[in-house]
Amino acid sequence: MGNVVEMPVWALILLIAFAGVTFASHFLFPSVRWFFRRRMERVVAKLNTRLERPIEPFRLARRHDMIQRLIYDPEVSRAIVVHAKAEGIPENVAFEMARRYAREIVPSFSASAYFGFAIRAAKWLSWSLYRVRLGHFDAAALSAVDKGSTVVFVMNHRSNMDYVLVTWLAAERSALSYAVGEWARVWPLSRLIRAMGAYFIRRKSRDDLYRRVLARYVGMATDGGVTQAMFPEGGLSLDGALAPPKLGLLKYLVEERTPGARDVVFVPVALNYDRVFEDRLLVAARQAGGRKFPARISVIGRFILKQVWLRLRGRYHRHGYAAVSFGAPLSLAEFERDHPAAGIEGLAQLLMERIGQEVPVLPVPLVARALLQAKAPLSMAELEKAVADMAADLDVSNAYLHLPREDIGYGARFGLQVLTKREMVQEVGGAYSVVECERPIVEFYAASIAHLFRDCSAN
């Protein structure tokens, strides 16, 4: 027993390494995970005392457990068998495909990251870029929503800033879970987005197995009471106007619920901007007849560096106003009771109508519409009168009209200044008109509010 054993140094190092890994996996890692989980539970308990809608246990489950629960769901199991037969592959291969899809979809929510970093960053970024205004917001109606229901914020999609604005504006009520497209599946951005509770989706996937896995995850999250945010239009508006609703996620959300489960309450949310940073990319995609945006990370990098350089030189100005309005909640149970034959299509149409009624009216869209409708260049006095006439002609009596300083004349001058600074409007002899090559961009902004007027023509 006391004999000396000789071994090469490399073998000794390998032995120590294996022993270290075994010790870590069996003793150290579980203790560390337990420590951080206990810490997270204390953070969540503290957060839930101030949140109007506490974070549900579903969101706090370990990601591994959620993946296992999803892939062993009976509906997913049946889909695996069907997919294996249809493709002529072994069931274990189809099962691994389902597992890969589940790992791709399921988020890894971190309350500390969401409320400790994301909310502060979102608020700072929003106020750095825009003068943010909250339009219609009936706090009493939102507070009256049954605490046992699942709340879903349904929004128009104007810009990728939509995520940022609504996230921090809703921060006092609950943490939101978004469906995020494939554009965000880039490391390290993907890890941060997962920590925010967002889940990734392949918008154009025609794989039945993938759609079944995604549908069951949405159904589980809805049954679990997760507060969600979704864009019924399915993507960014290419022309600035509201787009017809797409039924994919909405259908999953409604049809995948467990019978007799909690109610779903939709809250319409409408956003509008004096400047959409993606405007040229979106208009170019529409003119090209597709949805491919020719954006590169170098373009984004140059924009950020330019804004930083302007700030360092003291010449930075925010990009106008951004406004968000919250509409009256709509109970799914009440809708199905009152409109038994409407179906998903009727629900989607009603939600888009509710969103459209809440779209904020801001200076730049107003001025853009006035200039496009004019048959000749307008003097400043004529422009102010045209804007005032349009403000009085809003078809929706409760439309949120933001007038800076409560002055219609100042609002017209402000909107004109933003468009002139971007060289979309020109002045000739004291009269203002749209620069012809920039007309599609100006139309993009005018279209955002066109549906709110009795005369819905943009020109």
Automatic annotation (TrEMBL):
InterPro entries: GPAT/DHAPAT, GPAT/DHAPAT_C, Plipid/glycerol_acylTrfase. Its EC number is 2.3.1.15. It is found in: Endomembrane system. GO terms for biological process: CDP-diacylglycerol biosynthetic process. One of its GO terms (cellular component) is plasma membrane. The chain crosses the membrane at residues 12-36. Coiled coil: none annotated. Pathway: Phospholipid metabolism; CDP-diacylglycerol biosynthesis; CDP-diacylglycerol from sn-glycerol 3-phosphate: step 1/3. It catalyses: sn-glycerol 3-phosphate + an acyl-CoA = a 1-acyl-sn-glycero-3-phosphate + CoA. One of its GO terms (molecular function) is glycerol-3-phosphate O-acyltransferase activity. It comes from the Bacteria. Keywords: Acyltransferase, Membrane, Transferase, Transmembrane, Transmembrane helix. It is a peripheral membrane protein. Signal peptide: none annotated. Residues 151-274 form the Phospholipid/glycerol acyltransferase domain. PANTHER family: DIHYDROXYACETONE PHOSPHATE ACYLTRANSFERASE, GLYCEROL-3-PHOSPHATE ACYLTRANSFERASE. This is Glycerol-3-phosphate acyltransferase. It comes from Roseovarius lutimaris.
